[in-house]
Amino acid sequence: MTNLPAGIENSREKRQWRTGMALKVELKPHERIIIGACVVTNTDQRARLLIDGDRIPILREKDILTPETADTPAKLVYLAVQLMYLSPDPMAHHPTYFSLVRDILTAMPSAWPFIEGINNYILNGDVYHALKEAKKLIGHERRTRPQTRLTPTRRLPKQMASASRPFHFTALLTGHYTGRYFVSVVW
After folding, report:
1. Nearest-CA neighbor of 171 among 153, 158, 185?
2. With a threshold of 0.85, does the pTM exceed it?
3. CA distances to 22, 154, 167 from 10, in Å
4. What's the rounded Cα separation, in Å, for the pair 15 and 77?
């Protein structure tokens, strides 16, 4: 039996206590969501999930960036933060992230307020909010440099971005001096 707070006696109160802090997610037909280290795919009907847990990474399909879609410097920063959020060891991705940050700040100094916000969230251990701030960085890049895309030498290799394999949470982003970033995350 679960240790319930004092004053909760009947089954209705127990149910409300258990789901009081749960995240309610409604999935569209065939929509995918990452919960912890699992990818959950909905069937052909709408579904409502109540997710209860402490600090479990949850990402809806619309918020997931793939290596194929990481075609700008800001999107690469978002992808690095996404990997930190989903990883059991976020610090393993810090060198990659900070390398990407150096690159984007060199190319677009106006990104500093967004990078500062992302850094503060990461340093405080709030990687989810860092991810939201990285999404704002993508919007800023779109407004200030609408034609920015990675050049062919900075594109991700197609064999590493194959959509036919399941999603993997490991990444290898290397070559901060060469400008080449290789990501082994596939959806």
Report:
1. 185
2. no
3. 20, 60, 42
4. 41
d(CA 134, CA 140): 10
pLDDT in tens, 6-22: 555 555 554 444 445 77
Give how far Cα 64 sits from Cα of 76, 95, 109, Å. Answer: 12, 21, 26
Q: Quickly count: other Cβ atoms within 10 Å of residue 29's Cβ.
A: 10
- Tens of pLDDT, residue by residue over 170-179, are 333 332 223 3
Report the 3 state secondary structure along the chain. CCCCCCCCCCHHHHHHHHHCCCEEEEECCCCEEEECCEEEECCCCCEEEEECCCCCCEEEHHHCCCCCCCCCHHHHHHHHHHHHHHCCCHHHHHHHHHHHHHHHHHHCHHHHHHHHHHHHHHHCCCHHHHHHHHHHHHHHHHHHCCCCCCCHHHCCCHHHCCCCCCCCCCCCCCCCCCCCCCCCCCC
